[in-house]
Every structure is written in C-alpha cells, then in structure tokens.
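Annotated sample (chain length 179).
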Amino acid sequence: STVIGVLNPTPRLWGTVNGPYGPVTAVSVPGVPPAWLSGQQTVPAPAPGTAVVGSGVAPNAMDSAITLQGRHRLTLRATAVFRENTGLATHSLVWMAPSDFRRLMGFAPGQASDIAIYLHRQEELQAIQSDLQSAFPWPEDRPSCRPTARGRGCRSMKSRGRRRAIVSPVARDGWSTAL
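Output written by the structure step:
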C-alpha cells in the first residue's frame, strides 16, 4: 500500500528481551553500523545464529554463547563486540539476523516492530495520519498510529530518561517519524 507524501518507509525489527544479565535491546537492521559505532573494524551484518553485542550483554563475549528469552528462547554465538567507547548507545544491544529476530520475538514474515517514515516537512504528518491508519491492518484493541517527529522523540527520551516503545528516532535528512 502506498501513502502519498511518505518517503522511504522502513520496517524495523527491535524489542526488549531478557539477556544473560538482564534486559537487552534486540535489533535487526540491514547493512553495517556507522563508522563511529564500529571504529576502524569492519563489522559485517550478523549471519543467522550469530550476533554482535554490546559490552554489557556478556563479559568476554567473543565466540561465546548468548542466550536470549523473548517469546521464544534463542541462543546465538557472539562474533563481535561493539567498541567500548560506544557503550552509551550499545551497552545492552544485541544485533542479529532478521530470521533470528523473528524466531526470538515470534514475528511472522512481513511483520515489523514499527515503521519509520520520512516526510519533506513536519506539517505533512497531520495530513497523512488518517491515510497511514487506513494503509495498515492494525489490531483493533490498540492505538493504530502514534507518530513522533525525530526532534520531539529525542527530547522526550532525553527528558524522561527512558525509551517509550513507539519512539525510535532515525537520524537522516528530512523529517522522520516512527509508527
């Protein structure tokens, strides 16, 4: 389905699960991490059965087994650890293949945690909100669309000191919003 005015809709796979030492954020994103995150090392996208982990997920994680509990239990082999100086962003992060994420969270093919969309101007958000609600088969028992502009989402996360399930800012040119 297409919504006029939406640029580059990006389904995202992320969620919080139990890790070896407490809650972790599980993510599956295409491509490689930005240079500031991986440093000089090249960190390829994890293959099924493997993960790149933050330093807080498991001490001495290289080539060790990491067991996660979401909707289902999943054990992955840590093949790389994010740089220590990126700990604020990666301390409890587990980056895995999409097939592993779907198994862990019980997601069917085609399902996503949320969708990031990009708009030319923030003012367009009000105009397309009803079109977005009509374009997706949201469950009837929960709100179907809670858009958050990138700047507002960042301020909200910073002021509250915690992450809300629907707010995940995306750093790109133009406006972005997470549904």
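Annotation: The first helix runs from residue 35 to 38.
Annotation: Strands lie at 7-19, 22-28, 50-53, 65-69, 73-81, 93-96, 114-119, 175-178.
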